[in-house]
Amino acid sequence: MSRVTITINGKAETRDVEDRTLLVQFIREHVGLTGTHVGCDTTQCGACTVHLDGRAVKSCTVLAVAADGSQVMTIEGLADGATLHPMQQAFHEHHGLQCGYCTPGMIMASVDMVRRHDGELDEHTVRHELEGNICRCTGYHNIVKAVLDAAGKHRAAKTAAPVEAAE
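Predicted structure:
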């Protein structure tokens, strides 16, 4: 057994876990946040995607002991209270989900994608980058539309931000 402390959605969570405990198990079974889904346990589906120290990772391939001292953001921590994150809102507006099983992982991967590309995305890039996240229901069309919409809003917000006056 090892004692680990992982800050999840801004709250430090300390637990004693077996050394083989996966991060997804820590999140779901030890902390009780079930928005992160387990789909395949082999990194194929992406349903377990979370942000680990600011980067999207598949939490079914990270040991909890390896994440000791890290910051994790799950789908539960993405919204600001009752206000959805822009990516969550875009998925809602563009019907980027059907059964919803893959949705948390898709959203977390998409938020990271927009961050890494600073909102400069096209359909080809979105489809290529989401290859590690499987959806069996939607055919991806509305997911891609949602990601592109959120990326466009990210770019617009960036250009609308006030520029500091030169001294």
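Summary: The chain has two domains: 2-77, 86-160.
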